[in-house]
Amino acid sequence: MPVVSEDIEPLAFTFADDGSVPNNPMPFLVYKGAINVDNEHPEKTIEGLFGANGWGEMWRNGVYDFLHYHATVHEVLGIARGHARVRFGGNRGKEIEIAAGDVAILPAGTGHQCLSASRDFSVVGAYPPGPKMHVTLPTPENHRKALTTIPAVELPKTDPVMGKDGPLVRLWSRPD
């Protein structure tokens, strides 16, 4: 059985800057049920897929239960086990139920916070090549700095799920 569902298209959401969390004009993407994690080592399955598509600096954990964002790097979250309700886009964003097999791709600046999770909730996170990830809290000073750093974050060359021809490559662009 293939690791990735063929011809899957992500859901796309855009979140406005709310004055605390800058978010990003590029869409936040969610692939529902994208990865077949029905095996004994779903974290390894996700790590293999992300790595094959050029995303690295991987980690395993959950999603922080406080509002934060990353101002210097894009992030992918692959759900290996369990389920959670996560608010994406800051306090005025959208609450989304994510579950095993789902993938969320956050452009730099996208606020996120876990509101509730199952006991077995397990996430594999990864980043495209570039700067290290830093957790940024929504303060006025951080917001001001992020307005400069976010537009300078390089666009990924690949979609972490679908590779070089994946939807992310088509959906994420910047005006010339």
Q: Keywords, please?
A:
alpha+beta, about 180 residues, six-stranded antiparallel β-sheet, three-stranded antiparallel β-sheet
Task: Give a structural overview.
The protein is of the alpha+beta class and 176 residues long. Helices cover 15% and strands 31% of the residues. The protein is built from three helices and nine strands. The chain has helices at 42-52, 140-149, 167-171, and strands at 11-15, 24-31, 56-61, 75-81, 83-88, 94-99, 103-106, 112-117, 122-127. The strands form two sheets. The chain has a six-stranded antiparallel sheet, with helices on one face. It is globular, with a radius of gyration of 15 Å. The protein starts with 10 loop residues before the first strand and ends in a 5-residue tail after the last helix. The model has no long low-confidence stretch (mean pLDDT 94).
Neighbour order of strands in the largest sheet: 1-2-7-4-9-3
Stretches with pLDDT under 50, minimum 5 residues: none
- Average pLDDT reading: 94
The SSE order reads EEHEEEEEEEHH
Total helical elements: 3
Query: How would you characterize the largest beta sheet?
Result: 6 strands, antiparallel
Secondary-structure-derived class: alpha+beta
Radius of gyration: 15 Å
